[in-house]
Amino acid sequence: MFSMIKFRSLCAPAVALLAASLAATPAHAQRSPLDSIARLAVERNLAIRQARETERQSAAEARRAKGLLLPAVGVDARYSEFTGVIDIGDAINPAYAALNQLLGQPRFPTNISQTLPFRQETRLRSSIPLFNGAIYANLAAARAIASMRGAERAAATRRLDADARIAYLNYARAIRAVEIWDAALPTLAENLRVAERLLSAGTLTGDAVHRARAAKADGDQQRAEAVRLRDAALGSLNLLLDRELDTPVPALADSLLPDSVALSLADALARAARREERLQTEAGADAARAQSRAATSAFLPSLALAADYGIQGKDYRFDQDHDVGIASVVLSWNLFNGGQDARRREIAASAERSVALRAAETDRLITLDVRTAFDAAQTARAALIPAGARLDAARRAFQFVDRRFGEGLASHLEWSDARSQLTAAEQNLALTRYTLAARIIDFERAAALRVLP
Question: 3.10.330.10, 1.10.10.10, 1.20.1600.10, 3.30.479.10: which CATH number matches 33-80+134-296+340-446?
Answer without folding.
Answer: 1.20.1600.10
